[in-house]
Amino acid sequence: MLLTIDVGNLNVKVGLFDDSRLLETWRLAPDPRRTGDEYGLLLLGLLSRQPGSLSGLSGVAISSVVPRMDLLLEEACRRHLGLSPLILGPDVDMGMPNLTDYPEQVGTDRLAGAYAGLRLYGAPLLTLHLGTATVINVISDDGAFRGGAIAPGPDAMLQGLVEKATKLPPIPLKLPASALGRNTQAAMQAGILFGFVSMVEGLVRRFWSEFGRWQVVATGGYSELLAGSTDIVDRVDPDLTLQGLRLLYDLNAARRKK
To answer: What stretches in the chain show pLDDT beneath 70?
Structure first.
C-alpha cells in the first residue's frame, strides 16, 4: 500500500492506495506549529481505521507548497511509519519535460496533477486545479508541461474583498440561484462565484484559441461547482494530484531499482 500526501495552503489531503485503487482519503490542517510526532500520531490514527494498512504500507509520497511541512512530514514518516518518504522536488523524476522558463519555480502539486492527467487521460489537455488558487496547466501533444495561468480562487477573492471593503462581511461561498443579488450576501456570492466561473471559462477559451479545442480535466474543491455551471469541462477527477503522486512514486521506484 502507498500513502500519498498533498500539502496545500488550506488543507493536507491524504490518500491511501492499494496498487492503483484509492481506498480512502482524509483531510488535515497544514499547521507548521505541530511537531513531527503530532503528525505521525495523526497518520497512525488514520491508517488504523483501514484494516491491514499499517502492516501493508510500503511507501509514502509527498507534494507540498508549505516548505516547513516537508520536514515535519518526513520526520513523522520516519519515526512513526518506519518509512523514508519520496518528497517531490528537483531531484525527483517528474515524468515529463518541463518547458517553462524557470522549471524549478513550478509547484510540484501542479506537476503531479499534470502528470496524472497525461497518464490517465492522454495529451494534449488542460488540467484545472480549482482551490485557493485557480491554476490552469497546459500539457501539449508531445507530453510536455508548457506552463499555464494562475489566478485567485473563490476563497482568495472573498478574503481580498472583505479585507479591502470594510463594510462587506465574510459570507459562505454558496452558488446563488441568480446573478441578481437582492441582498449583500447574495450579491457577493453571485459576483465571486459566477465571476469565478466566467474567469475560468474565459481563460480556457483563450487557450483553445491559441492551441485548439483540447480536453479539459478539472480537480480541486471547486471543480464540481465549475463543472455544473459550464460546458468547458470534459471530466472531473477530484483526486488528480493524489493519483499523480502514486504514478510518480511508481516511476521513481522503478528507476531506482535499475
So the answer is: 255-258
| Inter-CA distances, 186 with 12, 130, 170, 190, Å | 30, 22, 12, 6
Span(s) in the chain for CATH 3.30.420.40: 2-87, 103-243
Q: Are 181 and 195 spatial neighbours (Cβ–Cβ below 8 Å)?
A: no
CATH class label, 103-243 = alpha beta
Contact 206, 224 (CB under 8 A): no
Please give the pLDDT value at position 209: 97
Residue that the C-alpha cell 515529463 belongs to: 96
Residues labelled as active-site residues: 109
3 three-state secondary structure: strand
Measured CA to CA, the distance from residue 174 to residue 110 in angstroms comes to 26
Q: CATH code for 2-87?
A: 3.30.420.40
Per-residue pLDDT of 73-93, as tens digits, reads 999 999 999 999 999 998 899
pLDDT at 166: 87
